């Protein structure tokens, strides 16, 4: 997004928050999902990256509740793109849920890749995705060593618009919060006891210095949730969606384009059909 652009904000965003009863019902359902996934894989241990953001904070809390904190191994993987406060919050999450964790600096690994292919040095997106994929490799290195399942931290909002790195944060064994819009992620995070500094943090993928999700996307999460729920998943026409939540029609169309353009990220890589 250029400096001249503003972040799209709905005048009347859709309220997708859950009732207290629904929060408890969803919490129980997600805890049972984690238990079912580990049992099906025949493992007791899980691994996940803890970033200091609300998504990983929620999954950490749910996993600790589902399996006991001793069976959740948190990896905090800072790079030079992360600020110290974010990493402190990541440790605060692990400590809050009494989850054992390791801190692994990824920049030396990233630099080794960039030294091997220097043409990518000045490509901000390529280098940013490299950092995310490096974390995925470390998640699986630990998981393979410990016979553990890798838990994802992706939510419904990000999955629908493809706002994740293919074979990066999308490379996991299961996505416990895949059916939660961002509004609901924040709500459940507070319910399970994620520290408020994390629950209310401005979301960032930590791909480069100063990066935030909303600035990169050019739209606030509440607005994005509203468009996805009404138009993309709900089938409400674009013009009606724009009127309902108070945004320009081109904002709705842009979200639709993100959804359609990221279809490949939500599918298994294709192969040719049999020729007969």
Automatic annotation (TrEMBL):
Any idea of its EC number? Answer: 6.3.1.5
Could you cite one Gene Ontology molecular function of this protein?
ATP binding
| UniProt binding sites for Mg(2+) | 55, 158
Binding site residues for deamido-NAD(+) = 133, 166, 173, 264-265
Where does this protein act, in terms of pathway? Cofactor biosynthesis; NAD(+) biosynthesis; NAD(+) from deamido-NAD(+) (ammonia route): step 1/1
One Pfam family recorded for the sequence: NAD_synthase
What GO cellular component entries does it have? Answer: cytoplasm
Q: Look at the named UniProt entry and state the broad enzyme category this protein falls under.
A: ligase
Mind listing the GO biological process terms from this record? NAD+ biosynthetic process
Keywords of the record:
ATP-binding, Ligase, Magnesium, Metal-binding, NAD, Nucleotide-binding
Per its record, the protein catalyses: deamido-NAD(+) + NH4(+) + ATP = AMP + diphosphate + NAD(+) + H(+)
Question: What family, per the record?
Answer: Belongs to the NAD synthetase family.
Supply the name of the protein.
NH(3)-dependent NAD(+) synthetase
Q: What organism is recorded for this protein?
A: Halapricum salinum
Gene transcribed to yield this protein: nadE
């Amino acid at each position: 997004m250029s400096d001249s652009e503003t972040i799209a904000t709905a005048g009347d965003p859709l309220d997708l928050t859950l009732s207290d009863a629904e929060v408890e019902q969803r919490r129980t359902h997600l805890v049972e999902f984690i238990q079912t996934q580990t049992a099906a894989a025949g493992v007791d241990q899980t691994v996940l990256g803890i970033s200091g953001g609300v998504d990983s904070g929620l999954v950490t809390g749910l996993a600790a509740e589902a399996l006991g904190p001793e069976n959740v191994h948190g990896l905090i993987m800072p790079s030079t793109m992360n600020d110290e406060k974010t990493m402190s919050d990541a440790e605060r999450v692990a400590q809050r849920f009494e989850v054992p964790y390791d801190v692994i600096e990824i920049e030396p690994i990233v630099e080794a890749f960039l030294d091997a292919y220097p043409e990518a040095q000045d490509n901000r997106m390529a280098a940013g995705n490299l950092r995310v994929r490096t974390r995925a490799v470390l998640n699986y290195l630990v998981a393979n060593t410990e016979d553990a399942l890798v838990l994802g931290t992706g939510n419904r909002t990000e999955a629908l618009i493809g706002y994740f790195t293919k074979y990066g944060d999308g490379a996991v064994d299961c996505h416990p919060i895949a059916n939660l819009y961002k509004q609901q992620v924040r709500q459940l995070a507070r319910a399970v006891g994620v520290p408020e500094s994390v629950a209310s943090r401005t979301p960032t993928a930590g791909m480069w210095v100063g990066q935030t999700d909303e600035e990169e996307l050019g739209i606030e999460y509440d607005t994005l949730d509203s468009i996805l729920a009404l138009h993309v998943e709900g089938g409400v026409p674009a013009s009606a969606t724009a009127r309902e939540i108070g945004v320009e029609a081109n904002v709705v169309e842009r979200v639709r384009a993100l959804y359609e353009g990221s279809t490949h990220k939500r599918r298994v890589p294709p192969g040719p059909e049999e020729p007969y």
